[in-house]
Amino acid sequence: xxxxxxxxxxxxxxxxxxxxxxxxxxxxxxxxxxxxxxxxxxxxxxxxxxxxxxxxxxxxxxxxxxxxxxxxxxxxxxxxxxxxxxxxxxxxxxxxxxxxxxxxxxxxxxxxxxxxxxxxxxxxxxxxxxxxxxxxxxxxxxxxxxxxxxxxxxxxxxxxxxxxxxxxxxxxxxxxxxxxxxxxxxxxxxxxxxxx
Length: 196
Known about the structure:
alpha/beta; 3-stranded mixed β-sheet; 4 helices; 9 strands; 33% helix; 23% strand; globular; disordered N terminus
């Protein structure tokens, strides 16, 4: 982790490598990194992965100094390799901790494609982005929908697909309550497969 030696912390027994990125690009209330191709940024993610492999704690921080933004997303359009490096990090997390990792893409401008890494396999779930500002609680609902589908006996990939379909249709119902980012319409499908 040669480039990261300058970003090393020792707190008691903890040995920590960190990389801090300043985020300056904002599109439609979404902040994106990088704002230009960054081979250095890709290298830093790979070095953090190596540091973690060597037993260190490793963190990647994004500093966003602007208000009224919803979330951060990799800027695949500007630099696909940075997004691929993040996928590599998801694979590393899954392999290291023997867990599944769902890399969400609902924040993208043109689509809502998600990547599931599980048991050594990458599964893409394609979807279209639904123009609806009422997205409060979508993450919690997605998690609950995945868990509910697993309880019904679906495989993880099937559970993710069903949950993703449910979220998409709930957003497409266009419920609009009050002001600000409200909830989606959870009860849209009481007479559909989602209620079975």
